[in-house]
Structures are given as structure tokens and as C-alpha cells.
């Protein structure tokens, strides 16, 4: 397997509703930005991967409509749809395509236009015999899991509110982010409208329209075109059982993310995550999930996530900044969200983070999360060895 | 055991820049627009944002005649007659309804667009294509 | 700048799904107010809903075990945000209660509605009982919701 690096990233202005652009036009914008960032002309792209959930916009084969916008005309092109992990799955498929030696330069673009459909409804249309009659969408499912997690690990509403504040304040440094709230306070979070007990409006991610693309290259092409490639040190996927009720205390256990991280850390030589990682872009659909991911990713022991956020360990000034971009809590076009995590981790290594750049990033973690407990853990580094 | 699983969800799609221009021209002016690729010069109809042939941008929309040749056609029992029509000025064929019984149609026939009385900004603002008088190949 | 149009289109389709043997038996059981789980011969886990194999052990599931219609409330929420029911296109009235219920005799939890929608009256650990529809059709919504036992 050959070494693989990310040499460019690009994204659109994410927003609640992009009625100004059609789906292909949205995709083209992100692809052009990524190819420009990578200094790669479209003709040099060997293959294209498109991450998107068909049912969210209710059209078959999104790659048919947007493929030419992604410069995939007459090239190998594949769509990836794995719920929230669509974006990270697409990136991992891209890594495999280049690492295998089949392709030298691959473009991955993820996108979603939630304003065009009903996402909570679409995602509930799983098992027709079991799930559909009792669906409450991601919101209801998360609310149930959060109540179990709080009971088990003792995190509080206040801890969750601090995560919400960190995310939207960080997003204010990110020109692409959907929700930017530089003056958000925990009081404002705790008095926002209750959506599904105990989740309040500001505990939840938005639904965004947006697209994000990355350019992946083999070693020869990466060294030729990029001053500081973001090398892929590990990319690990773990999925789990098909029903919400199979997963026990889902957020507390999260065996998929725990194992994906353990294997990724081993491959990348990470022994103490807080010390050995310089930045993390983790996929957190609700505030409480970020706390659960701190535990699953080994940033702290189980039960200690509240202390981590209280002490500011994961703020921009802390030991391990988590989600300088503002995370999924600030921007969430589902097909793009996983690509955004990988892109944001990569651009930190590239040194192109602008106002959200963390100083001296050598190693970055990106995670994906989807469905009930699917997880991806990806580690990028500035050096190949 | 088999059970039915209905799905009923309303969607709304942004036509975007080029798509909107195309639909507005149909609705307001009964004009059909194609898009010309700045790289390879091909004219795509209906107008689209990007050239599927070479991936180039297609910022220029051009008028395409409402008349052209029937490239192919078929009848679907119970549904109607459909055809691929290459309009004058376009390099691609357009899929739409044909207005008339199956005995009317032959490849190469000259056809013309008939516009609907009530138009909303939809590809159905063209009601379908009818055979032109004396239009047999 | 040209006016930007949006085009409305409603998906209104129906599919026919084969249930498979395990779900067929389960659904027939519901029609007789009988709930059953499938027990894994390897790890002993009793699965609701029934399925052909245990995901952890990769063993085929063949042992049916009875499950009661009462159980423990493992998680709860009150949903305020309206959701469109994708089967009908209609919005489900809110607020409504939802819970994860571990029925007596099962190891997985059942995600279902709670008739209670007052947060002060709900907590993890309460005993709940299924309320059945009058006319049973052999489907998941033969159980209307769960009520908290006094």
C-alpha cells in the first residue's frame, strides 16, 4: 500500500438555505475551490467520489446529476452513502483508491441540501417492519441516548452548554461556517427552546446546505504539487448492530469509536492522545456527544469529560483544541460533514487555517459518526514517518 | 409475508442560476434555451450549468429553435408517446412527450414544440412536440 | 439577476417488502398479543426485533423465547419538534413521549412511544406496560404506546 496525502481542500459558504444554487452548482463551487487549493487542473483528476444521502433530497443517483459538476464526466465515479459517515467513508474510499496504486489523484466531494427535503423524515425510513412506526428521527434517538449517558457518567446540562458555546464561538473564526455566534453564553444555551428532553435548540447541530471537497494524491504527485502534504497515517472504520435498542447505553459505550480510535492510534504511534495530537475535528451531532467522544477517544477517562470542558482543555487555548472549525454543531450538510472534518484537519496541517489555525500542528485527528453508532477515525500527519 | 411500505415526502429543488434562466424563459417568453460550453462549443439543451462532454463551464445561454428533428421515439402503453428531439441549434437531444397517435411518428420527422396555456416554470411548460405539416422525412 | 426558481415535487410511492421468516413469526405473534425474542446460542443475548443472526457471534438465531409486555424504562424523552411521518406525509402531533424499554425477557431495548408527556413524571427505572390497539394487525403499531405502572 502506497503512502497517501491530502494536498488541497475547498468548501462552500454553508447556510440554512442555498436557493441561489442548484445541487450541481453547489458541488462545482467546492470542487473548484479544492482543485485551486491543490493546484491541480480538473484534467489531472483520475477518479471522483461523491458523498451524499439519496433519500434526503429524494432523487435517485445524485452522482448522475452532479457528476459533471464534480469533473467526473467520462471518469471512474462512485457515490458513497453511509449516513453521517458518508463524508468520512468517501474520504476513506479515496485513500484506498490511491493507496492501492490504481489512481494517482482522486477528488472526493460531499454535499447535502437539507433545505430541499425533510431529513428527519428521510432518515427514519429504515426497517419497514420495525423502525418506521416508531421513528422520531435523529433528535428523538439522541435525546433517548443522552438521558442514559447523563445518568451513567454524571455530565450536566451546564457541561453541554459549555460545548455549545465553544463550538459557535470557534465558528466565528471560520468564514464557511453556517452558525457563527461569537457572543454566545451558557445562559443563552440553557434558556433556548427544548426540542426533545433534555436537548435544547442550541444543543443541536443545524441542518445546512453545503459542499466540501478534498484532493488526495500519491506520494510522487503530493511531493511535486504540495509544500506541506497532510499524510494519511491511519483510517479506520467500525460499524455496529442495526437497531437503536441493540446498543445498550450507546453514547457511554460507543464501542465502535473506541475501537476505531485504538486501532488508528496504534497505526499512527499515538500513545497519549491529549499530548500526541495537536488538533482534533470530531463529528459531534449534539453537545453531549462531544463529551462522550472525549471518553471514547481517550482524551480522558470515563466519567471525566465534564472536567475536560470545565477546565478548557479543548478550547483554542487548551492542550488539545477540539473543532476549531465550529464542528458539526455549527455546520451540518450531512454528506459533506465528514469531508469537512477531514478537510479541516488537513488544512490545519497545511497551515491554511487562517483565524482558526492552531499553532504548530503536526498531527491531526478527524472522526466521522453516523446512524446509531457507526464511526471512522482518521489520523493525518505532517511527516510520512 | 409481504407488507407495503409507502413513502410520501414533499421536496423542493433549487433550479439554480442556469436552470432558473431556462425555466423562466419557458414560462414568460415561450423560449427554449440551450447552454454553450466555452471550452468545446457544444450546445446543451435543456440548458445546464456544466458541460457533460468536457466538464467546462457553460455561462452563456443561447436561443434554440422550437423546431427540430425526431431522433427516436417509443410508445408506453397506458402512458403515452415519448421522443428524443434534436432542436435546431442544439447538439443534444431533448426527451419529451409527443402529441399524437403512434402512427404519426417516424425517425427524422420535423417536429415543433407546443407550449401549455398555463405555464409555471417547469419542463411541462412545453406540453409536448407535434408533427409539422408536410413534415414526413 | 434572473429570478431563482424552486421546483416542488412530492415523492408518493409504495413498495412491497418481504418480511423474512423471523419477522413474520414475530408479527403473527403481535396479532395474538404475544411478544417473542430470538436468543443467541453463543452469547445468550435475547434480541428484539428478531433477526436472522447475531451480529456479534455471527451465529444463526433459532431459539425463540417468550417476552412479557411489561418492562423497565431505560431512557425517556419528550419530543417537541414536529416531525413529518414519511409513511403518510402528515406531521405527527407533538409533544409526545418516547422511551427505550427493556421488556421482561429481552436483552435489547424497544424504542416506542410513552403515553406520558410530562417530564416530572418520567425517570429511568420506572416500570412500564404496553397498551395494545383494539384491532390487531400484526405490525409494530399493534402496541400503541407504553404507560407507566403505578
Overview of the molecule:
The complex is a heterotrimer of chains A (385), B (137) and C (150). Chain A has two domains: 4-119 and 208-225, Thiolase/Chalcone synthase (Peroxisomal Thiolase, Chain A, domain 1), CATH 3.40.47.10; 136-205 and 235-381, Peroxisomal Thiolase, Chain A, domain 1 (3-Layer(aba) Sandwich), CATH 3.40.47.10. Helix content of chain A is 38%, strand content 18%. Chain A has helices at 23-38, 54-57, 62-66, 86-99, 119-123, 137-153, 157-171, 186-190, 219-225, 250-253, 255-268, 273-276, 287-296, 305-310, 327-330, 334-350, and strands at 4-11, 47-51, 77-80, 105-113, 194-196, 199-200, 209-218, 230-238, 279-281, 363-370, 374-381. The longest helix of chain A has 17 residues, at 137-153. With 137 residues, chain B is mostly beta strands. In chain B, 10% of the residues lie in helices and 44% in strands. Chain B starts with a strand and ends in a 6-residue tail after the last strand. With 150 residues, chain C is mostly beta strands. Chain C has one domain. Chain C has one helix spanning 21-31; strands spanning 6-18, 35-39, 46-47, 63-67, 70-79, 83-84, 91-92, 96-103, 110-114, 127-132, 143-148. In chain C, the strands form three sheets. Chain C has a five-stranded antiparallel β-sheet, with no helix packed on it. The mean pLDDT of chain C is 94. Chain B binds chain C through residues 1-17, 19-21, 23-24, 121-122, and chain C through 2-19, 23-24, 27-28, 84, 86-89, 139.
